[in-house]
Amino acid sequence: MNAHIIATITPKPEHATDVEKQVRRMVDVTRKEPGNHRYDLFRETSPSGPVLHLYEIYEDRNAFDSHLASEHFQAFRSAVADWLAEPPQVRVLEALDVAPER
Question: CATH number for the 3-93 domain, one of 3.40.50.300, 3.30.70.20, 3.30.70.100, 1.10.150.320?
């Protein structure tokens, strides 16, 4: 069963550009991971500054866990750790009724 993930990343306003650059690098690498079906990046404009959201789909929970353990993900976390206003929020969702892609 696919693992659907929504991750929210809230950078400190003065580091918003740097965080977005790092996330964009993650997009390229993560889309090539075995078991990754989708890794989409969104930006939300809020009064306190931009907030980034990732919508991710993996083949299963093991593929998602492999992503979290990957060298590039660990490097990303280290690079942005001091640039975030709060820890990333990660939601692992169970699909109940998902429309097929067109």
Answer: 3.30.70.100
